[in-house]
Amino acid sequence: MVRFISSCFVIDFESKEVLLVFDNKEGxxxxxxxxxxxxETPIQACKRAVSQNAGIDVxxxxxxxxxxxxxxxxxxxxxxxxxxxMIDIQYMGVPTDKEIAPPDGTYAKWFGVxxxxxxxxxxxxxxxxxxxxxxxFKNDVKQRIRKLG
Length: 149
Fold this sequence. Notes:
Layout: E1 2-12, E2 17-23, E3 28-30, E4 33-35, H1 42-54, E5 58-60, E6 75-81, E7 84-95, E8 107-112, H2 124-148
Parallel strand pairs: 1-7
Antiparallel strand pairs: 1-2, 1-4, 2-3, 2-8, 5-7, 6-7
């Protein structure tokens, strides 16, 4: 059986922070993610993952286009579990607000982009992607924010 997951690296480029949630099942901090529901697009699932895990809304973007019609994932990761294969379609998002309000039993936290590099309990893959995304898109996102503001 193959399951599709959608996840989001939520980066606040102004404060240089990334939103991570604690996965109780795996016992580690990770980007918000969820199993896609039938007839749900990966982007809809990505936004739902952030909302359900952290209680905030997110604008999903790869900053290459100005419309969600052309958003491409930043990566896709295939893993094998006892339940079968899982394909994680990963996106980058920018928070529309920063006041996290995770539901009971869920832990969400803003970490500094540089801070996570020294934390042993954050996977290397997450560290690498967050650092690269921040470096690649920080100037582009700041320009977009200035245009909107």
